[in-house]
Amino acid sequence: GGLSGTGTATITISDVNDHPPIFTQRSYTALVTEDLEVNSEVLVVSATDGDEGENAVVTFSIVGGDEDRKFFVETDKLNRRGIIKLKKGVDFEKPHERTFNLTLKAEDADFFSLAYCLVQVEDSNDHAPVFFPQFYESPAMSEDVPVGTIVTQVTASDLDSGQNAHFSYSISKESDPYNQFLVDQSGWVVVAHPLDREKIAHHRIMVLATDAGTPPLTGTAIVMVTVLDVNDNGPEFEAPYKPVVWENTAAPQVVRMNETSLLLHATDRDTSTNGGPFSIRLLMLTSEATNFNLTDFRNGSAAITTLRTFDRERQKEYRLPILMIDGGFPPMSSTNTLTVVI
Fold this sequence. Notes:
By secondary structure, this protein is an all-beta fold. It folds into three domains: 22-122, Cadherins (Immunoglobulin-like, Sandwich), CATH 2.60.40; 130-228, Immunoglobulin-like (Sandwich), CATH 2.60.40; 236-341, Cadherins (Immunoglobulin-like), CATH 2.60.40.60. It has no helices and 25 strands. Strands 10, 11, 14, 17 and 18 form a five-stranded mixed β-sheet that branches. The protein has a four-stranded antiparallel β-sheet with strand order 1-3-6-5, with no helix packed on it. A hairpin with a 7-residue loop joins β24 (317-325) and β25.
């Protein structure tokens, strides 16, 4: 008969690329803030492929919904992942950059599949409130205007949204050290405490608008207020005089006011309109005043002379009431006491 034999044959089946890559999700969503830095990660997507080796190598790309090229994809071939990153900054304040509907593509050498990604952009507090205009000049006002008088109204706006767009007004303490002004939440700046031109004649108020974002941002505006004088101050001595008379010296003796002047000088803290010319008089209210004479030179100065000889051992000083009246309307007066030392 015939002969027979047996043997083993190993058949190796080679893979062919007959499976498309499939995203693990049909759709994705991502939420980013508008202050996300360029090259930051937005989202990671992944895909599977039933093939092996080179046939299972998947590449990811964006093929739709990104006309301004705000995003790009890095492919992690080893893990079949696509890392979507920010290529250019996004701006929530631009309506067309608040939402992106991206079409994603996963492909191998022969096949591909698509998935969709909705990227939503959140507002961040990247805009400070802005005043328009940023400089205000109020009509000049008298220093005696009543509390509550309106100075001006300021207006600000904020390009952010939600809480980031809410702001409140206030006045910088440094620009209003005496708290003479306040601003309400409608932007009305008003007089809060009586004005005093002799204290501050020109106010440069800094109004702040601070938003409710994190961290809060602040915008500023300047309000200029010029305060007009009213005659609210009487005349006063120009200096703290210490007049001296020598005893046992025959009259008339000129009373020296201080080391540098024989004359008494009047001054007024109001403006020149409400200042001189001054009227200076010696009031004969006490017997002490009858020992002296005052000559008013009608130029803001006066001389005082003695009418008799003095003895220090009997009386060391004399108090003279001096009435001074300014040239304002209506005129203001004041009485100052001049103490003459013998």
